[in-house]
Structures are given as C-alpha cells and as structure tokens.
Amino acid sequence: MEQVFEQLSEDSKDFWTPRSIARIPQPTPLEFYRNYVSKNIPVIITNAMDSWPAMAKWTNEYLVDTLGETQVTVDVTPFGYGDAVVRHSIVHTWHPLTHPFQTTVGTDNVFVMPEERSMSFRDFLAILHDPCFDGVPYLSHQNDSLRDQFPALVDDVDPMLAFASEAFGNTPEAVNLWIGDERAVSTMHKDHYEVRQSIAMQDNNDLTPWIPVNPLHPQVEKYPLTKHLQPLVVTLEAGETLYLPSLWYHRATQLTETVAVNYW
C-alpha cells in the first residue's frame, strides 16, 4: 500500500501540483478560470486590493475609533490551537468516605474547540496586546462576520473580487474578517469552498478522524506515509490575495499581527 501512496505522490508532483505558488498581477476572469480555477491550482494575486480604502485606513487606531464598543466574537484558546486534536490526561475522581482524591490513569486524544467570548472590539485589541492575558485571543468568527459584526468596515473593502466572481459565476456567500497574531494556528484541514483570502494588515470507525499531522514537522515514526508529503509554503505580504481552491489541505498561521479578509 505504501508503494501506491508513493506513486500517487510522485504522479501528483509530475503532472499536477506546482513546485511553488505563482505570484501574478490581477488576471482577467478568463485567465483566472483557465489557468487556475479549472486546474484547481492556488495562486497569489499581488494587486487585487490596491484600490481598497482599507489599505490606507486600517490601523489599530482607526479600527478602535471606528469599532470601539462594537461587540465581537473572539475565539480564546490556551495555546493558540483551535479545532484541534490534543493529548489529554484521563483523570478518575474517587470518593471514599473521608476525602475525595484524583488519580491520572492515562492519556487520550481529544478534539477541542475554542472558547467563544463576546466582548467589545476595544477589549479584544487590548487583550491581544496584553502579555499577561491568560490565553491566545483570535478574532476569527466565520458565517459572514465582516458584514454581520463589522458593518462599519464594509465600505472599506470590495464586496467581492470582481474577476473571481465573474469566473465562478456567483458572488461570495460569506465575507469574514480575521485578526490575530503569530500565536494563533489552524490545524491542517480542507475547505469545501473556493477560498480567497486577502491580507490587509479518540479513533472510532463511526466517526471521521481529525488530521493530527503537522506538515512542517511530520512525525514520520508515528505516521510513516508523511515522508511522501511535499508541502508548499506560502508567505502572504500586505496587499496580496491567495486563491486557495477547494479540497486543498492546508495549515495557516500569522508571522505577526495580521488583519485578513476571507471570501467564501
């Protein structure tokens, strides 16, 4: 079976996946569809955001002045990993007649999700910059968060990427605003939507197992097939847009404090 996976990896590299992700100026809808969408290949567009007011206006001061007491949904995690499989101690509590006590009987993999907290945008930015805050805050609510929770910012960005909407034949179902720093990390996953992200500043046969692999630091001894992985590493700069086709497995983090607009 391993030989099959090895051959699949080699064939994918030879006949489909690029050696690196191209950086191009904004394409026409036909160029975008023909060269990238139809082939299911990612690409970085370098100037799709040049006309956005957000590129000049979005600073921490402007965002606080504009949003201030606006209530936002913030994901908070202990170590920055949301929607992730983590190692968890199994603790049994015993209740004898005298004093209860606990004992650790082993460990297991558990799937954890972030705690969602509602707070003002001003408070979110304060805890993001507070080194004493216990946890990692990440403003990453989905379900059309830009238009739902940040209507005051809607006019600062384009409602869609026109060349992409014409190529797909529809407009985005959701536009999300994400703000975080280098501590927030997504685990490897895939999306069933075509994604356009713009940077502005326990196993059970009845369940679908989560992906515990970190493609940048694979545990080859534990997951031997990962030696055939050939990850593509992309660093987006301010003002650049990544087109990520559906079903591409990916893992994302920030290198510094980052503001991103995500179109689904």
From TrEMBL:
UniProt-listed Gene3D superfamilies: Jelly Rolls (2.60.120.10)
PROSITE patterns: JMJC
Lineage: superkingdom: Eukaryota
SUPFAM superfamilies per the UniProt record, alphabetical: Clavaminate synthase-like
Domain annotation JmjC: ranges: 139-264
Record's protein name: JmjC domain-containing protein
Biological source species: Aphanomyces astaci (Crayfish plague agent)
